[in-house]
Amino acid sequence: MQQPPPAPPVIEGVEWVRQGPTRRQLRNDLLLALVLAVASAASLVLYRATGYNDDGPWWASLLWAAAMTLPLALRRRFPDLVAIVASAAFITGAVLYVSEALFSNIALFIGIYTVGAWGRSRRRAFVVRLVIVVAMFGWLLWSLIFFSTVQEVAPELGREGVLSPYLAYGLVNVLTNLLYFGGAWYFGDASYRSARERAALEQRTAELAAERERSRRQAVALERVRIARELHDVVAHHVSVIGVQAGAARRVLSSDPDAASDALSAIETSSREAVTELHALLGTLRADGEPEPTASTLGIAQIEALAAEATAVGLPTAFAVVGDPRPAPTLVEASAYRVAQEALTNVRKHAGAAATADVRVRWTAERLELEVANTGIVRRSAGGSASAEPAGLGLVGMRERVAATGGELEVGPRARGGYLVRAAFPLQHDARRPGSNGDGR
Fold first, then answer.
1. Do 135 and 87 touch, CB atoms closer than 8 A?
2. Strand partners, 320
3. Number of other CB atoms surrounding residue 417 within 10 Å
4. What is the b/e burial string over 218-242, where b = at least 16 CB atoms within 10 angstroms of the residue's CB?
5. Which domain holds residue 312?
6. pLDDT surpasses 60 at 359
7. Is there a contact between 355 and 420 (Cβ–Cβ < 8 Å)?
8. pTM of the entire structure?
């Protein structure tokens, strides 16, 4: 299907110009003109068969029908010219007593309507229609006045009395033409206004989409700066540990080899953790996404205080630890805390005033699991289905944080009501995980 060209922008204080017709619209106009031409020719045959005004030659009547209808094939490209041609042909046919009054009226109506609907200049469209209407009414009034003195025309309509039959006939004609031309004028302008409003709506939709994209990119850029700061904190922590242990090893290297060996082991462990977390953070910075704010100085031990804070601000929150706590990488600590914080924030924002929350930290041999469940209301989408993800950037940020550690995130409505966020973090780096190559790339 032929796509229309982009609509011109709608600017306040500047006259809007309707975009040109598409190929499909031009084909439809051509088909309309041909149908009306054939219908006008058939109507002429029927009129002449009745003996009504059949004195003129056939060829003249057919030329008149072509002049009335065929220019409509270009009505959207040259609306002013087509309307003028149709009006001139209409008056010419009436003067020459061409016997067709059905499809010629339809063609003239379409021509005047198109000036209002597709005129490029609104001032020119107004002037063209005004000239046509004034000319038509001038010709109509002149005809009514002129033939009022000719008794041979419509002799059955008497001319006597204040409201004579002939005067009533004339008033009916005037009223009919008022409705005819007024309707063509009104519906043409209405079509133009509708096209302008549709273009304005499309423009606003495009601007909103562009603004959302800019906001998304800005959020990504800002969060990557924050992640870079966190990377600095993590690396600085490990480097400082390495520096302290290296100094201790140097001092006791000759006097206490075992202590020096322990210090070197600590250096090795800290350096490996630093490299692992560095790879994960750099992977996050390379990926496209919409992360959320971070905090590297808070960890798993502070989640209980986070739950207590949520209870203090009006969200009853239970906290439990399952299993024996174990040392976790710094990135896992920070990510677990932020996931818990964002999940509780979403509960307060989306679950309703009567909601309660349950935070569980579960330790296993290989990973740390964090669950934040609530009993609130699950939002519904526009189609009536349960929304799997709350709106905003927070959930995307949680996914990035968990992915940076090589973990998994599960979110969604619970079968018994409420919402669940479950994150699983590996406690040991697995070099076989995608994106965590052992060669450092």
1. yes
2. 360
3. 11
4. ebbeebbeebeebbebbbebbeebb
5. 300-426
6. yes
7. no
8. 0.52
